[in-house]
Amino acid sequence: MLILTCPCCHVTAEETEFHAGGEAHLKRIGPDGAEGEFESYLFMRQNPKGVHLERWRHVYGCGKWFHLARDTATLEVFGAYSAQTTSPPDHIRSAIQEKHPEWQWQGAS
């Protein structure tokens, strides 16, 4: 079981109080985008064994969306941050690279 802390209301609770919403930092494709780009946006997702940046919602709390950095193999949580940011904050990148020196932020896909 994951124990998460919402970065919006700062409540710490079990993962059952939250809802996972998929991969974070996706580049949204609008109606004027190319068909191939739109198909990729809808269906192509990373599914790494290791560090993954995800969207979560505090369903039974403040109701806000946020991003979470965690290791999918060990379930270690590196930190949570606002969904309005376009990249992981420096302190979360440092925490990840401390455990996974080979990890690099790839930017929006």
Automatic annotation (TrEMBL):
Cross-referenced Pfam families: SoxD (PF04267)
InterPro entries registered for this protein in UniProt: SoxD, SoxD_sf
A biological process term (GO) from this entry: tetrahydrofolate metabolic process
Gene Ontology MF terms in the entry: sarcosine oxidase activity
Official protein name in the record: Sarcosine oxidase subunit delta
